[in-house]
Amino acid sequence: MSAIPSTWTAPFSVGDAAVASTPRVAMPKADRWIWMATMALMGLGTVMVLSASVMIAEKRYGAPGFFWKRQVIWWVLAALLMLALSRFDYRRLRKSAPALLLVGLIGLIVVLFSPPVNGAHRWIPLGWFNLQPFEAFRLAMILYAAAFLAKRGEELTNLKRWIPLMVVLVIASGLLLLEPEFSGVLTTWATIGIMLIAAGARWRHLMPAVVVAVLAAVILVFGLGYKKARVDDWENGLSSTGGSYQVQQSKIAIGSGGLIGKGLGNGRAKMLYLPEPHTDFILATVGEELGLAGMTGVLLAFAILVFRGWKVASRAPDRFGYLLVIGIGGSLLVNAGLNAAVVTGISPATGLPLPFVSYGGSSLLCTAVAWGVVLNVSRFRESSW
Question: Residue 226 sits in which domain range?
Fold first, then answer.
């Protein structure tokens, strides 16, 4: 691990070693590639929300710019939060991890008493803003897991040392299934699994946990019928023109876009053919209007974030920073990958937004906060890379 730069030493303790307070000469620069990739995705997302939501906003609210105006507000707030978190020392978050996790779990309980939307309790109405507690919980869970695993260190070779983390995951999974938010359960477990591997957990302990998780998912879907209709639609869509209407329209949109697309604003799927073209399926709108080239650009930006995140983690000054960045990068990889798989028909529909790009304040703000933390960790290095 690289040492903390001598030109910027913070007046607080790291682990058991106190860091001396010295005059702040110059704060090291954050990773420029992460800055550029996040700003590019957020900028493209704002433009695509405008293009994709005009028709649906006009029909629902009589205002073509209804969703876009709100997204601009979220964009500004997200950019400011990312900038602020990039300058707030991430090590101060370590002691707050249990409290933040508790707040996240309370949010998952409160949302169960909120009015259902399309049969699901996923949002808490707060006037003109609907809060999605899962987004905040996911970030709090990553923060808690990073602190938990960093503290355990070599003790992770003992399976019993995992119990507190597993208990939290099981409780959270139960609450998420009540919403229902099955995709949230899958992505959360996948993210924590990535963190456990990075922390040095033994494969002979991980594999039984994976087997149990897969069996639980199979029993839920095929034994109890939980979300089985989505799996059936997906299977039908693999072998015929049947399957989910939304996925059918998504494939049509992407296919009609060709290599360079029909041009920004010229897509037809958003004309009430593709339901919610500005949220979960915004990548289909990108494919139709900007073509394969546009979709490749979006996926390349995510690849840059994951790769640079790994670089930041590998040079983090402590184990907590390393695991925190691994968790944030892993979460982005899982969510972006699963969203792309759904949009292209490779995976059953999940309801996950595309990070940084889809319409929605909760997702954009929480993702921006997470990558603001990554940017802060990136400042703790000896040289640029």
Answer: 26-378
